[in-house]
Amino acid sequence: MKRSSVVSDPTVRIAATITATGVVLYTLMVAQDVFAPLVLAIVVGIIFAPLADRLERLKLPRGLVAFSLIVSIFFLLAALAYLIEPYITAVIDRLPSIKYEIRKLLFEYRGLIQGFDAMNREVEEALGAAADAEREALSDMPSLTDAIFLAPWILAQALIFFGALFFFLLTRNDIYHWVSSRIGSGTDTPMILSRLRAAEDTVARYFAAISVVNTGLGFGVGAALMAIGTPGAVVWGIAATLLNFVLYLGPVVMAAGLLLTGIVAFDGLMTFAPMAIYLTLNMTEAQFVTPALVGRHVQINPFLVFVSLVFWLWLWGPLGGIVAIPVTLVMMRLLDIVGDRSESRAAIRTA
């Protein structure tokens, strides 16, 4: 009797909830190398679940379907890396000149404020220190030893991701049944299972809609940058597509990269042309295209999106930004489960 009263004490429940939340957050942060690829694999598995269902309806074995999707994703990532690698190598080779151009531009604008004499002196110092800047940039580049030590970590992350993705696609129906039977009672299990299916469908439809939008943005950015002669316009189009999946942070990174490209490739006001083109297209997409297409399938509170993004970025960095929206959509469906359960139990008691 005393134990029951202690458990029902609101203060004890709140303290236990806060403690459990802190332990979970600490575990997710400390064990990021394990949980981050696991969560990403679950999100990717949910996204490809409708395709897996269609293939299974063609009487294909579930194991073959899961393996085929894994191989397809692997070769897609490999092809993307093969396409981008030459441009990344070129950027690394030009790091000294990029750093020098940035310093020169900063000195010029600082000179406008401090006076032309100071500007000339600082520009001359920058020109005289060009060789030092090049040596400094080269010394900051990762060495072969760094790459060798980093390779096992990358391999382990990839192994966790693809392994978790394979087994999730293979057994996700069993996982849904197990979760639904553990969350609620026997009468609630079918409703919870339907909500889990609805969460899967919501995430898949959101990703499909946002993929169409981001692909269109990438084509537009690539074509516009190619029209003004920006180096690597095709890669910038691909980057615009991929980075737009990370809300807020992705466009900032993209704009900063295009500003650096403009500094190196153009002079005068044309320096800002690549960034201005991207920001114009991105704002058009965000204000008109995305609400029209994505809003038909998913409606999310912008404040909730921002808080979720900040939290996951703080927890796992850029990878957290990728999983933030899908995880939020799933949690919204789970909260619907809680509400429906309480209503159904109230109806049962009334009956």
TrEMBL record:
It holds the Pfam family AI-2E_transport. Its main location: membrane. GO terms for biological process: transmembrane transport. The keyword Membrane applies. It is a multi-pass membrane protein. It is found in: Membrane. Keywords: Membrane, Transmembrane, Transmembrane helix. The chain crosses the membrane at residues 12-29, 35-52, 64-84, 147-170, 203-227, 233-250, 257-281, 311-335. GO terms for cellular component: membrane. It comes from the Bacteria. Belongs to the autoinducer-2 exporter (AI-2E) (TC 2.A.86) family. This is AI-2E family transporter. It comes from Salipiger pallidus.
